[in-house]
Write a structure and sequence with these properties.
The longest helix is centred in the N-terminal third of the chain and has 15 residues, at about 75-90. A hairpin with a 3-residue loop joins β14 and β15 (about 255-265). The protein has helices at about 25-30, 55-70, 75-90, 160-175, 215-230, 240-245, 275-285, and strands at about 5-10, 15, 35, 40-45, 45-55, 95-105, 120-125, 135-140, 180, 190, 195-200, 205, 235, 250-255, 255-265, 265-270, 300. It is an alpha+beta fold and about 300 residues long. α2 (about 55-70) packs across α3. Strands 8, 9, 10, 11, 12, 13, 14, 15 and 16 form a nine-stranded mixed beta sheet that branches. About 45% of the residues are buried. It folds into two domains: about 5-125, Aminotransferase class 4, branched-chain amino acid transferase, N-terminal domain (D-amino Acid Aminotransferase, Chain A, domain 1), CATH 3.30.470.10; about 135-285, Alpha-Beta Barrel (D-amino Acid Aminotransferase, Chain A, domain 2), CATH 3.20.10. The structure holds 4'-deoxy-4'-aminopyridoxal-5'-phosphate. 4'-deoxy-4'-aminopyridoxal-5'-phosphate (PMP) binds near residues 38, 194, 216 and 253. Acts on leucine, isoleucine and valine. It catalyses: L-valine + 2-oxoglutarate = 3-methyl-2-oxobutanoate + L-glutamate; L-isoleucine + 2-oxoglutarate = (S)-3-methyl-2-oxopentanoate + L-glutamate; L-leucine + 2-oxoglutarate = 4-methyl-2-oxopentanoate + L-glutamate. Belongs to the class-IV pyridoxal-phosphate-dependent aminotransferase family.
């Protein structure tokens, strides 16, 4: 069972989480016409009166852009101010995950985005490790990542997550922890809710935007950190077989942070992961406000 934070933002007000409920006729439930964000909040390790949010501005901008795909004008600053108030109302004492969600709240039928009411809610839940920090095994999914010409993959559109759900369950039911999806061109795209990185000969490689990936904020941060550390970074198409013989492979995401991959199908990855470990340590120090060079990535809320 999840431990939800006690207060949610729903229909323009802060209410007890249990009272934030939608109708069974809600348009978004039927047609997948929602979009969400996902960010972590942690109590400051040195100051329990402060909550740290990693790259809050980027998360709010991405959600605002996702909302535009739904024909909904919701400015990033509005999202940000609701999230800040949400945190103050809940005053969490443990690590948590915030889920802001924009959606067609209309009760009418027929798939469309015009002339339907839209709304926005925020709730949160306690969240520890999403994937095992020791590493995960991955199956190459038989499901393919959708194409940008079929739906706006740069938005976190809720309906698109049917593919992630199919892939994840297929992987887990066949004995793996996670799924890696190829795109329609047969190139590596991403995992069910994470971007994919590999290391070969000291270079960090990750599929580029043209591989139908989500524009991951952790991905973007890792690329910047690696460059600052002097690790060469290449964004380019990746073949499945290249993944199988890589020196290191890891997944990145807000929930997963940096999670090493220990096995892909029947191929075992090395447990010696110098670059993964270096990036992981750096990212974790940054998110905990322990790295002065990246303080502008960490938004602080006094509770
Ligand atoms: N890809 C997908 C499909 C995701 O759902 C996520 C999680 N938001 C990611 C990648 C990673 O994105 P981020 O680093 O912004 O959490």
């Amino acid at each position: 069972m999840h431990n939800f934070l006690p207060v949610a933002y729903f229909e323009g007000k802060f209410v007890p989480f249990e009272e934030a409920n939608i109708s069974i006729a809600t348009h978004a439930l039927h047609y997948g016409t929602g979009a969400f964000g996902g960010l972590r909040g942690i109590p400051h390790p040195q100051n329990s009166g402060q909550i740290l949010l990693f790259r809050l501005d980027r998360h709010c901008q991405r959600l605002s852009k996702s909302a535009r795909f739904l024909n909904f004008d919701l400015p990033a600053d509005k999202i940000q101010s609701v999230i800040v108030d949400f945190i103050k109302k809940n005053a969490p004492t443990v690590s948590f995950y915030i889920r802001p969600f924009v959606y067609t709240s209309d009760l009418g039928i027929a798939p469309r985005l015009h002339k339907v009411e839209k709304d926005f809610f925020v709730y949160g839940l306690e969240l520890g490790d999403y994937l095992s920090p020791e590493g995960v095994s991955c199956r190459i999914s038989s499901w393919y990542r959708q194409e940008d010409r079929s739906l706006p993959l740069r938005g976190k559109i809720s309906g698109a997550y049917i593919t992630s759900s199919l892939a994840k369950t297929e992987a887990v039911e066949s004995g793996f922890d996670e799924a890696i999806l190829m795109n329609s061109q047969g190139k590596v795209s991403e995992a069910s809710g994470m971007n994919v990185f590999l290391v070969r000969d000291g270079r960090l490689i990750t599929p580029g935007f043209e591989q139908d990936i989500l524009e991951g904020i952790t991905r973007d941060s890792i690329i910047a950190i690696a460059k600052d550390l002097g690790i060469p970074v290449v964004e380019r198409p990746v073949d499945k077989t290249e993944l199988l013989i890589a020196d290191e492979v890891f997944l990145s995401g807000t929930a997963a942070k940096i999670t090493p991959v220990r096995q892909i199908e029947s191929y075992h990855c090395s447990t010696h992961r110098p670059i993964t470990d270096r990036l992981r340590d750096k990212l974790s120090a940054i998110t905990e406000d322990a790295d002065a060079n990246y303080r502008d990535w960490v938004f602080k809320v006094d509770i």
